[in-house]
Amino acid sequence: MSGAPSWIIPKSKGIDRRPMIEVTCAVIVERDRVLAARRSARMPHAHKWEFPGGKIKEGETPASCIRREIREELGIRVRVVRQLSPVIHRYGTGPVRLIPLVCSMEGGSISLSEHQEYRWIPCGELEEIDWLDADIGVVEIVKGMLC
């Protein structure tokens, strides 16, 4: 596939030519635990756990996107510590490039606007959670970082 644009992902029956959706997620770390949020019944992939975040809007950087998304979804301010390797996953709606950002809480109290619940997950319990498919790749990266 040399010379093919980076957003073309091979499918079992041809090439997926849908544009890559750029999404960020926050790996919020506190005392060797990470924050996970459970998607509500009204969200796609209901009741799955995820690292909260969302789509990058035009003109945003991954860091500015995650700060906005976490403020909107959780009501807190975060400081971006570093960006981890992206994870690419293909959902039925198209390919997603998930950009994980390690963050620390800077202020506010968690108040859920979209999610059903949240938990601080210790390293040893990361594999016990029913994660959203794309987030499973992030879990592997986080385990290597924290565990």
Task: Outline the secondary-structure elements.
Blueprint: E1 9-11, E2 14-16, E3 21-30, E4 33-39, E5 49-50, E6 53-55, H1 62-74, E7 77-83, E8 87-91, E9 94-107, E10 115-122, H2 133-146
Parallel strand pairs: 3-9
Antiparallel strand pairs: 1-2, 3-4, 3-6, 4-5, 4-10, 7-9, 8-9
Structure report:
- With 147 residues, the protein is of the alpha+beta class.
- The chain has a single domain, classed as Nucleoside Triphosphate Pyrophosphohydrolase.
- The protein contains two helices and ten strands; from the N terminus they run ββββββαββββα.
- The strands form two sheets. Strands 3, 4, 5, 6, 7, 8, 9 and 10 form an eight-stranded mixed sheet that branches. It has a two-stranded antiparallel ribbon with strand order 1-2.
- The longest helix is centred in the last third of the chain and has 14 residues.
- The chain is globular, with a radius of gyration of 15 Å.
